[in-house]
Structure formats: structure tokens, C-alpha cells
Amino acid sequence: MKKKLLCAAMIMIMVLGTLVMTGCGGSSDKSADKDTLVVGLDDTFAPMGFRDENGDLVGFDIDLANAVGEELGMKVEFKPIDWDAKEIELESGTIDCVWNGMSVTPERKESMALTDKYLNNKIVLMTLKTSSTDVTDASQLANLKIGTQADSAALEMLKSNEAYDSFKANIKEYDTYDTAIMDLKAGRVDVIAVDQVLGEYTNKNLGGEMKECSYDLGDDYYVIGFAKDNTELRDKVNDAIGKLYENGEAAKISENWFGKDIVVFEPLED
């Protein structure tokens, strides 16, 4: 009987051990000494990270992440994710960071370990080049139909604008900016609120069919997000970006993608 109990106990211990190992197997190592940096991204966000005509991942963030990898002696692996589940992906360890034109928000400051700001991206208003519309003051938005992407930095900027109450009923939210631009071209909205880097890149591909209004909604800075407890790896990546900023390599990547240097390296305010 004792032998049977002992055997049963040993089998239980082995099973539990296997379950524990299996549970751990799905998570990546959060150690700063790992040799691969797994970057989570939305692979449709041009020009930060997107697929070219050959299906290859390209973009400003792709090039900057690869440069950081070289600086740290790490391989960089890009993993497309559901953007709405990015916090879950971080906490589960399937990715090391979210690096894809991610704006600073109070919620992200609470849920992630964020790097310093590395890119200055204004939120602008764009309209058709053939339109006589030019927004010079927020008060004019009360008389305009405004398109923007749902759950975007541009939408947050609109909501935080001092004149929001006067134009909030005029805002139409879209799943993608492509759809918003289609409605702009069809005359169903008068202006779109959009990230400047995305708006300018898209406009270039459209042959300059749009123009920026004189009034913008303000500066919006991009950061990289790590799991809250992964500050050691966050700091290593942050230091590498600082070196690329100082030696001018980050500026070269910016010039290549945007035609100008909009790279910054500024501390994140508390």
C-alpha cells in the first residue's frame, strides 16, 4: 500500500512538473541578456511598419529597430499582433515590446514600461487640395464634418481640444484612415484629423490630392512599450536609441522615410 501511495505521489509530482514546464514554454524570456528582441507591431501602419508590394516588412520603425538590434548585438524578430491586445501580448511574454508608432497616453504610462520619446508626430487636419477650406482656429470646426480613425491619437486630441463641445457631434469615426480618406474625396467629410507622418506619406502616394490646414491639434510623441516589469530591457533599448540619436544614424533613417529629421530623444514626463 505504501509503495502504491509512493508511486502515485511520484507520478503526481511528475505530472505537475510537466504542466509547469508546459505553461512556461509559451512565454519568451524577459531577461535583458536574451539574444533576440521580439517586436510586436500592426503591420498595416505606413510609414512606420507595413508590408511593401513584395510582402516584406518595411518602415521607419522597422529600420530603427534593426539599427538598435545592431547596436545591442541582438537579432530583431517582428511579430504582427492584434493592436487591441498589445498589453496582453506584452504581459504573456509573446513579444518583448510594442514598437509601431505608439503614442503616449496616461493609460499606457500605467500599464507599460515606456521608453523616452523618440519621434515628434503632430496631429494635423487635412482636406482636399482643391478645397477652399483652411482651418486656422479650432472654433471653425463647429461648421465642418470631421473624419478620423476610431481609438486613435487624433481622436484623443480632438476630445481634449478646448472647443470639443462645439464640434463633437460633427466627428465621424472610421475603422481605417483609408476609409476616412475615401469619404473626404467623396465630400462626405470636410477634413480628416490624422497623424502627420501617416497623412503626409499617404498624400505623397495619392499624388498630392490633399493638403494640411494651417491649424493643427498639437504635438504627439511616439514611444516604445515594454511589460511593466521589464525595465532592464527597456533601458537597454532606450540607451541604444540615444546613441543612434547622438551619432546621427536615427536622423538618416528619418530623412529616408519622411524627407526631414523629426527624431527626438526627450525624457517622458511623469
From TrEMBL:
GO terms for cellular component: cell envelope; membrane. It is found in: Cell envelope. Residues 36-261 form the Solute-binding protein family 3/N-terminal domain. InterPro entries: Iontro_rcpt_C, SBP_3_CS, Solute-binding_3/MltF_N. Residues 1-22 form the signal peptide. One of its GO terms (molecular function) is ligand-gated monoatomic ion channel activity. Residues 36-260 form the Ionotropic glutamate receptor C-terminal domain. Pfam families: SBP_bac_3. Keywords: Signal. It comes from the Bacteria. Belongs to the bacterial solute-binding protein 3 family. This is Amino acid ABC transporter substrate-binding protein. It comes from Lentihominibacter faecis. The lineage of its organism: Bacteria, Bacillati, Bacillota, Clostridia, Peptostreptococcales.
